[in-house]
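The freezer alarm interrupted the setup, so I double-checked each line after restarting. Inputs confirmed:
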Amino acid sequence: MAASKPEKRPEERPTGLVWKPLTTAARQFAKSFVRPSTILYPYERLEDPKFREKVAVESGRPIGVGEIWDNYRGVHALNIATCISCNLCAFSCPDLCIDMVTVPGGDPKHPKKCPQIDYGKCSYCGFCSDACPEGCLTMTTHYELSTPKRSEMVYSPQRLFENYQHKLPMNPIRLARPANEDAILLDAPLCIGCNACARDCPTNCITMLDVAKPTAKPGEKLPRRIWKEPVVNDSDCVRCGTCISVCPKECLFWGTHK
Amino acid sequence: MWVNMGPQHPMTHGLWNLKVRIDGEIIVDADPEMGYLHRGIEKISEDRHYNEVVTLMDRTCYVAGLSWETLYITAAEAALHIEVPERARWIRMLTDELQRIGSHVMWYAAFVQDIGLMTPFLYGMRDRDLILDLFQSFTGARMTYEYNRVGGVRNDLPNGFTDRARKVMDWLMPRFDEYDALCLGSDIFHRRCDDLGRLSATECIDLGITGPMLRSAGLARDLRKDRPYHRYDQVDFDVATATAGDVTARYLVRMEELRQSVRIVRQCLDWLDKHPGSVLAQELPRWLGAPYAPVGAEGYLLKRRYPSGTGFSAVEEPHGEAQAYVVNTGGEHPYRVKFRSPVFANMSGAKSYLVGYHVADIPPIMGSVDICVGEVDR
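Predicted 3D structure, all chains:
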């Protein structure tokens, strides 16, 4: 299905010699009344819907050029108030550009940690906002990041919170959780009841429940404290894995309930 | 005398060096040197989650990012034994074809500039922008899309997308005629491109040359017909071929492919209008979902029950036949990822289609190969 080459070239056709340059000139002259595709960027902005409409009409194109849609992946916005310090954004980052830094608001024993993003490394893949279980880290349509200093590319949580407060249009897409997601399971014989998982759980979905203690043999010293085991509330759990990483005995693991 | 053309090249956007040995004005030997843009993507992939490799795929070929995403993700899904929803397959086919239009229009813009025509360059870039707009409306980015996920695609098409895409297709079709008028109607074009860089079909097969270069030599080899992936067996299109095997023939094949792609896109849009549904498989293990929580002690990971497997996929990318091979040993990272870049083979055969022509013929000939160095070096 090849398109056929023209039979004769313009210089071989006597009429073509006259008409072709004329029609070309006429067409090009007509184009001088059409708006050029060039956009004078800092002065003309595509975020402005009126300007976009103007461009679309004047250039005769079917849709506006370079429109910034709501799901554009630009600078992040962080709502510090709802952030639960679950680390999932940092875990999901392929470029390792997210650091969890301490922000005021937590208690001294368990400081609140929120993401700090290095835009010198960020590839704007959006995995962090996909991973955020609370929807507090989202991406906005803001894209102007030029700065004379490299250190200014690192956005602290407070600066990301400013983006949130400015109410920039945010990416509305949230990923649904997989239907058969794994849960936190306990290898009960290994557990020493140390409470580390329940203490560090960002959603407080782990409760330490009293369990039936194995009866000690006669003459054996009983453990002094009451024997406890973590029980995970699966509906509240965000699957961040903090409990697994803090467990000193490696007795928590991912799996499916039998 | 050996002449180095490159590594800073007038005709490509990446770095590569074409060494040509000349006798006066005639080329007697050619030796393309690549590797300047090597980033070790295959090795980096071994240290990433299956989904995170998608971010690298956009960086292989920046004009055909979505084609490479679907290439990798189809192989990964085969390795992980994951079924993909029907709608996601059609969306992937739609994105592949839109990407082909974007890539070919970009090629047109770059190619005509190589042979000295400036106006078509601006026309090509202008029209590619519409395709980028369409991509941006559902992926959220203009070049690095990160749209595919293991088990489907990240999000569904937004409301009103199909109408917008149809408008763009209606607008593009007459533009292709305009391209032809500008090039095929121009005497400069014919004098610079006719009977240049001739390759026969047998030579192409010997050198592993695929894609529009092979089809321009007269062989109707197209993976979309010969080994249908996605849902290409359910759409109606023709394979574009030409017989001459020269630079003009490659131009004609690509222009015809643009029109065929518009045809496929229209059929995809019709199907997608009629069949709403889920775009991401729900039966995924947690560690393949978006958040990659730590899996704890290494022993627990290795005890996991996920079956191992290997996956292979071959895709008719805008430049030719791209292939991917993924080995899954049951862990959370792929054990090995291998890609076959079509441009690597197309470019390596430079000697066979350059020797005997003049030095001034190099830009049109190498331009007609449609080189994307990011894809060659990976």
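Quick read of the result. Chain A touches chain B through 55 residues (CB under 8 Å).
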